[in-house]
Amino acid sequence: MKVRLLICVLVALLLAGCAAACADDAKKPAPVSQVLMLVGGPFHDNAELYPILQKKLEGTGEFKLNVTHDLDQFKPENIKKYDLVIVYATQLKMNKEQEQGLLSFVDSGKGLVGIHCATDCFKDSDAYWKMVGGKFRTHGSGTFQVNVTAKRNPIVAGMSSFQITDETYSDDFHPDSKVNVIMRREKDSEPAAWIQYYGKGRVFVTGLGHGKPAWENPAFQQLVTQGAEWATLRLNP
Question: What is the reported pTM?
């Protein structure tokens, strides 16, 4: 009887150890995360910008970036080979298959980074709005200060307030979203960056990033890079 009990205990411990190991493996990011960056639409499709971010992300040794205009990359059979999606596109529309591919991708535990005009994209999709959090309403432009408002968040930990020349995006936030604002503009306290969880996945969005002056700003590059690291479980796994 004692031998049988001992065997049962050993088997239970072995199974628990295997489960824990599997859970740990599931939390670990890929050695090099495959990144799909969707671009396109009016106003923001600027080919000289994309190499700036590609150089920054790939320079970490953590990411491999594929820039595309092809919305069919969101279809389930295509998007499954990626670990992170970056959206820098304006006023595009997804069909149902593309929409479901993107939503399921993030819900399953993958990452999404939205830069600037990402909140002005897929505006006919309530599900996308809920996942991203914000929907573009209006903007001005100028040189302004951005302040860190969530100093313990790993994306902005160690970052200080900075000046940037950019558009001043203002967004309407989805009533069912649960965003955590991590940066705000000094002048009007509008959110400049936020995060939220979507299913098992992570979403990071910044309203910054209209043109070359913003993309060449070291603080902007640091913010997007660390947002990508957080979204792929490299920060605060």
Answer: 0.88
